UniProtKB/TrEMBL annotation:
It comes from Actinomadura fibrosa. Pfam families: DUF6596, Sigma70_r2, Sigma70_r4_2. Belongs to the sigma-70 factor family. ECF subfamily. This is RNA polymerase sigma factor. InterPro entries: DUF6596 (IPR046531), RNA_pol_sigma-70_dom (IPR014284), RNA_pol_sigma70_ECF_CS (IPR000838), RNA_pol_sigma70_r2 (IPR007627), RNA_pol_sigma70_r4_t2 (IPR013249), RNA_pol_sigma_r2 (IPR013325), RNA_pol_sigma_r3/r4-like (IPR013324), WH-like_DNA-bd_sf (IPR036388).
Length: 433
């Protein structure tokens, strides 16, 4: 055991050219493998440990034997064989063996010959169960994010730590505690029903939204955009939309992420600096992602439910995507949608965004009045975008000294280096006549 309480990892063999193939297969198949094993052993933590054992076996064998024709089946077979070994060593072997069924013994043959066909009818349900388990509200938000990226995204502890700029030991502890919490709380490996499902789904969507937003506009560090996090959240969102096709908010979140991700190339300048929306070269927006976003938004609307927060945000993003240029943006429609969003999911951040939209639709004085009303809001204390928005509105009103002070204050609050430089540049530009 390590000091963190996690089982000591086996030493991995030296990296070879086959290592990239193993990594790629793991990223694609890990969620299915962990989910299938969790259905067997009814313990997410143990399932992940068994899957990791299978991964180590692949690292040891594939460089010499080659990648199997069905690598996912190979990994699942090894994982199941490890599960059987665990059960045999347990005092409850007979009881567990009966629960798993007599057919399980036949699945413990050589990995390359294992066939996943018998499990095909279960696998989608298993992955959906894993989604709801990894994002269970009994866990803290950071723990849900780490566990989701580990079990559903196939990311290593080191990759998660680097993505969120925290020590690897911190992420490892979060994952260990999350698995322990799920076990101690007796969280069942199942998809909840009724009101509990709706509550849990909001937790799942929140985690994907947080992962995407951290990639879209990094809160700290030297990079303004972390495309890998955006892509991972989008990949998981697409999987979830396929698993839960009748949930409009799932399609709404996917639509939002598709459209937002379409701007990635245009959001970064030559030196890595942030490029504001109204200054972006729209010719660099990815039209395929925009079309996919529109299609997801249409699917959400066709379900017929009242629009939720993610559908509304996707509709706002669609308004921007439909405009050929900044001057063609329907700011009145965007302001109206923010008004609906503020009633549906009220928050100070939504109100701040509404102030921006109103400032564009009705003039900077009206937008500034709405932004000023938020200065006493406790939730926005220390939030750098409030002075940034006020600085922009003040500059448009010709109040240069006040605007410069706001941009400087915003620069002092942000922890993202490119954003800080951009804000200071805006402040400096206001110092010259």
């Amino acid at each position: 055991m390590t000091a963190s309480g996690e089982p000591a990892a086996r030493a991995a063999p030296p990296r070879t050219g086959a290592h990239a193939s193993v990594d790629a297969v793991w990223r694609l198949e890990s969620a299915r493998i962990i989910a299938g094993l969790a259905r067997m052993v009814r313990d997410v933590g143990l399932a992940e440990e068994l899957a990791q054992d299978a991964l180590v076996a692949a690292l040891e064998q594939w460089p010499e034997s080659g990648v199997p024709d069905n690598p996912g089946a190979w990994l699942m077979a090894v994982g199941k064989r490890r599960a059987i070994d665990r059960i045999r060593r347990s005092r409850r072997f007979e009881q567990k063996l009966e629960e798993l069924g007599h057919g399980l013994e036949a699945e413990a043959g050589e990995p390359p010959e294992f066939d996943l066909v018998a499990d095909d009818e279960h696998i989608e349900d298993d992955v959906l169960r894993l989604v709801f388990t990894a994002c269970h509200p009994v866990l803290s938000t950071p723990a849900r994010v780490a566990l989701t990226l580990r079990m559903l995204g196939g990311l290593s502890t080191d990759e998660i730590a680097r993505a969120f700029l925290v020590p690897e030991a911190t992420v490892a502890q979060r994952i260990v505690r999350a698995k322990r919490t799920l076990s101690e709380a007796g969280v069942p490996f199942e998809v909840p029903e009724g009101a509990d499902r709706a509550a849990r789904l909001s937790s799942v969507l929140e985690v994907l939204y947080l992962i995407f937003n951290e990639g879209y506009a990094a809160t700290a560090g030297d990079d303004w955009v972390r495309a890998d996090l955006c892509q991972e959240a989008l990949r998981l969102g697409r999987i979830l939309a396929g698993l839960a096709p009748g949930e409009p908010e799932v399609h709404g979140l996917v639509a939002l992420m598709e459209i937002q991700a379409s701007r990635t190339r245009a959001r970064i300048g030559p030196s890595g600096e942030p490029v504001p929306l109204l200054e972006q070269d729209r010719g660099r927006w990815d039209r395929l992602l925009i079309r996919r976003g529109f299609a997801a938004l249409l699917r959400a609307k066709e379900i017929g439910a009242p629009p939720g927060p993610y559908v509304l945000q996707a509709a706002i993003a669609a308004c921007h995507a439909q405009a050929a240029g900044p001057e063609d943006t329907d700011w009145a429609q965007i302001a109206a949608l923010y008004g609906v969003l503020a009633r549906t999911a009220p928050s100070p951040v939504v109100e701040l965004n509404r102030a921006v939209a109103v400032g564009m639709a009705e003039g900077p004085e009206r937008g500034l009045a709405l932004a000023d009303a938020l200065t006493a809001e406790p939730a926005l204390r220390g939030y750098h975008l409030l002075p940034s928005v006020r600085g922009d509105l003040l500059a448009r009103l010709g109040r240069r000294d006040e605007a410069r002070a706001e941009f400087e204050r915003a620069a002092g609050l942000t922890r993202n280096a490119p954003e800080r430089r951009a804000l200071l540049d805006r402040a400096a530009a206001l110092s010259t006549p």
